[in-house]
Amino acid sequence: MQLQRSYDDYQIAGVCGGLAKHLGWDSGKLRLVWVLATFFTAFAGVVIYLALWYLMPEEAPPAPKFDPPPMQPWKKSF
Fold first, then answer.
1. Is there a domain that residue 63 lies in?
2. Following DSSP, what letter does each residue of 20-57 receive, concatenated?
3. 4-13 as b/e, with b when 16 or more CB fall inside 10 Å?
4. Facing residues of 58 across strands?
5. How many domains does the chain have?
6. S-S: 53 plus which of 1, 10, 13, 22, CB 3.0-4.6 Å?
């Protein structure tokens, strides 16, 4: 699995959601650890987050799920 920013699990840019998905961790706990680490390292986490936002590709959106209409709706298939 490639490291990508999350398409659906994000607060700002999906970096923590993508890291959590890649590592198999809970995204909420990873965000808490990230904020604490940012606070205790003189805000170096902000620079790292911005760099990852720029470098990590965004995950592709899921394909739409729909059933195509029948080609000839007046004919019933049995």
1. no
2. HHHHT--HHHHHHHHHHHHHHTTTHHHHHHHHHHHHSP
3. bbbeeebeeb
4. 5
5. 1
6. 13
Least Cα distance to 12 among 31, 26, 29, 25 occurs for 31
The rounded distance, in Å, linking the Cα atoms of 16 and 35 is 11
Nearest to 52, CA basis, from 30, 74, 67: 30
Query: pTM of whole model > 0.85?
Result: no
Judge whether 77 lies within some domain.
no
Domain with 31, as residue range(s), is 15-55
Any idea which residue has 């205790």 for tokens?
40
Backbone torsion region of residue 63, taken as left when φ is above 0, otherwise alpha when ψ lies between -120 and 50, otherwise beta: beta
Tell me: the pLDDT tens digits for 20-47?
999 999 999 999 999 999 999 999 999 9
